[in-house]
Design the sequence.
């Protein structure tokens, strides 16, 4: 009892400290800024403000959340800006609390694992703490013991395992081309992990229930699913700063932390215009291609998939509801099978929309959204020969402004369900 209450007291203390360390967005106002091709100058002007960019990248505009003490200074700059949100913290509340699944279900967990039961679908009713996700994948693996394994790609900067689950069908593992998913390279894009988990759950469930369509996928492919490419960043969003994007790697000569893993891959890395060379930027590319522990480990792992080939790669992000095809580094560059990719993407978009009307725009990454260099899909398509290499930007839609990274928990299952219909179409068509 005494030990228990000491632990409880410690837990309370830790919680209190964590709450005090948390970045508050109380009173932050969110603006949409039109750049009028003057992006560099605008960034120079806003450089000294307490503000955070809340866009995924930049086309002719971007979104900026400005701290209350600097709103006046921001407005005095006279930029072409419109107000999207009066108070970012109110938008963040819409997400609902992060609730532990396995703590409340603890008594059932051992029994469920022994019975090889899949996790209950109520998993998808809330956002979950980081530790729960590993338990979720352990339970999934235990429910599919002859046809799956948990693998470790390598470790993050802070030493967390970058883990994944490998699923296979008849005739053993590693004999078929890869369907390869990455999630959460951008830490604040919380919907990406649960959607990837939803797809994994459906694949295993379908195989176990002898669903003919799902079985046909396993006859053709092995699945490699990495839900947290950037675990340090994700943990940071849960403990300290909900809107953190990059990894947590410091760099010498700057107090700014973090590199954008999706600008760090070794393909067209040094091409100008699709990433930042400033360590303080949200799209900082690093000092050299692949110089983050996360992308270095994933590059080695990805190379190992080349023997059987990568049929389809998807990097799952939010937000904006886009299906983005090659390429990001150049708005004229197209994949050799571009027409086939456009056709599959069109069918994918229609299959999503048929579920509950959600519209996903599709097209080549650079010309549809904005330029990106050193991105994972460009690397997969351009350097690894992946036949289809896409970015999918999940809910909410492009007009969501300030609350784009915050999708109410009530929409997690619906996001998963529409993607499952879309992915079934894709896997049945490619
Ligand atoms: Zn992203």
Sequence:
């Amino acid at each position: 009892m005494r030990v228990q209450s000491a632990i409880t007291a410690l837990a309370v203390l830790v919680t209190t400290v964590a709450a005090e360390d948390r970045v508050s967005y109380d009173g932050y106002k969110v603006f949409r800024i039109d750049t009028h091709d003057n992006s560099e100058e605008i960034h120079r002007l806003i450089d000294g403000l307490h503000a955070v960019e809340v866009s995924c990248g930049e086309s002719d505009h971007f979104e900026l959340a400005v701290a209350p003490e600097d709103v006046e200074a921001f407005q005095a700059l006279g930029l072409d800006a419109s107000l999207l949100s009066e108070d970012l913290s109110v938008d963040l509340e819409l997400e609902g609390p992060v609730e532990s699944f396995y703590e409340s279900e603890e008594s059932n967990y051992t029994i469920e694992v022994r019975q090889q039961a899949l996790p209950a679908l109520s998993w998808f009713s809330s956002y979950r703490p980081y530790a729960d996700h590993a338990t979720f994948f352990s339970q999934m693996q235990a429910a599919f013991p002859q046809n799956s394994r948990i693998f470790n790609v390598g470790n993050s900067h802070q030493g967390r395992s970058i883990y994944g689950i490998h699923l296979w069908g008849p005739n053993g593992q590693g004999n078929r081309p890869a369907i390869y998913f990455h999630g959460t390279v951008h830490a604040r894009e919380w919907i990406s992990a649960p959607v990837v988990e939803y797809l994994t759950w459906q694949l295993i469930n379908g195989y176990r229930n002898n669903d003919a369509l799902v079985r046909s996928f396993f006859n053709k492919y092995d699945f490699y699913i990495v839900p947290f490419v950037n675990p340090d960043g994700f943990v940071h969003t849960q403990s300290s700063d909900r809107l953190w994007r990059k990894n947590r790697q410091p760099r010498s000569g700057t107090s700014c932390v973090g590199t954008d893993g999706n600008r760090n891959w070794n393909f067209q890395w040094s091409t100008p215009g699709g990433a930042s060379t400033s360590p303080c930027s949200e799209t900082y590319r690093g000092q050299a291609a692949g110089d983050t522990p996360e992308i270095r480990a994933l590059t080695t792992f990805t190379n190992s998939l080349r023997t059987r080939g990568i049929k389809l790669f998807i990097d799952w992000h939010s937000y904006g509801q886009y299906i983005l095809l090659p390429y990001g580094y150049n708005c004229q560059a197209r994949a050799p099978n571009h027409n086939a990719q456009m056709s599959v993407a069109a069918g994918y978009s229609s299959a999503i929309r048929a579920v509950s009307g959600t519209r996903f725009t599709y097209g080549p990454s650079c010309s549809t959204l904005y330029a990106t260099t050193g991105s994972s899909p460009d690397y997969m398509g351009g350097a690894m020969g992946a036949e289809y290499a896409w970015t999918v930007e999940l809910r909410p839609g492009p007009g969501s402004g300030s609350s784009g990274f915050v999708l109410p928990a009530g929409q997690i299952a619906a996001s998963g369900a529409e993607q499952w219909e879309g992915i079934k179409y894709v896997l049945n068509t490619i």
Residues 18 and 239 are 7 Å apart (CA to CA). The first strand starts at residue 29 and ends at 34. The chain is about 35% helix and 15% strand. The chain has a mean pLDDT of 92.
